[in-house]
């Protein structure tokens, strides 16, 4: 079922969902099941599975020289989605990214997804490789999420890349990323907003936000969206703090601000256990406010570790 239908059927009740990343190459699918099982009691109508671009590794050749090889550390996004649907009968939402895929590979992925009965996709540009300073598009691939949306919309209309005739049609419900604190490459919030609007005008039917810790940022973002005629559901993405180092790491990696009171509290913490306790309490408060506001879904970035999300969900649902 489409995410938009799940939200409509909930009649204003806030739903619970979460996001997983594929296991590191070599781990079994059990890693995924162990990350899902503890959260089933909260009836997630959908589970997202991220897609991570290939990075480089260096392999020594017979002549002793090092060769740069593209290496995908966490493959399996589509297969994991299929496994989730098969085992749990819960909708799985694969993230489709531009980086690391040619247009033909994207088309093949869309064909696989339709054959598997997957109704939703999250269309993203994708992160830069760790080995690169900034995002470098793949040769023959898409550059921006907008290009990917155009591709999926064409695919929905039965238009394939190298076929002149119309073939079978699809009906993917497309989600996109939104940044209450702006995407770090955009010169300002308005410039970023222009592209968010473009993504929705092109056919995106829901937005999932980057994590944020100050609800006012989300409230302002939703207001600005509505004022600009962006009327699709805006799903807040949430990441509870679980370690001391996240105080510095999360702002650096995700280009977000932590509110003063949370920084003050975390600065007093003497161990990861204390930081986690503070992070959990702060997230419960944040979630209760978001429910009060009428957020359609609370979407947790679990990174495959369900325990803290479970504690939070037990306190709020
Ligand atoms: P875009 O919407 O393409 O925007 C990228 C930048 O370019 C922005 O600064 C924007 O303002 C600008 N821009 C947009 N369109 C245009 C245009 N047409 N012309 C010129 N400039 C433009 N990353 C992964 O690698 N894998 C994942 O699974 C993943 N999941 C995510 C899930 C969520 C909910 C979120 C919020 C992020 C996720 N990311 C993921 C991270 C995301 O890929 C990065 O933040 C990436 O840098 C931007 O992706 P985007 O889809 O927002 O890009």
From TrEMBL:
Its cofactor is FAD. GO terms for biological process: methionine biosynthetic process; tetrahydrofolate interconversion. It holds the Pfam family MTHFR. It comes from the Bacteria. One of its GO terms (cellular component) is cytosol. Pathway: One-carbon metabolism; tetrahydrofolate interconversion; Amino-acid biosynthesis; L-methionine biosynthesis via de novo pathway. CDD domains: MTHFR. One of its GO terms (molecular function) is methylenetetrahydrofolate reductase (NADH) activity. Keywords: FAD, Flavoprotein, Oxidoreductase. SUPFAM superfamilies: FAD-linked oxidoreductase (SSF51730). It catalyses: (6S)-5-methyl-5,6,7,8-tetrahydrofolate + NAD(+) = (6R)-5,10-methylene-5,6,7,8-tetrahydrofolate + NADH + H(+). Belongs to the methylenetetrahydrofolate reductase family. This is Methylenetetrahydrofolate reductase. It comes from Pedobacter cryotolerans.
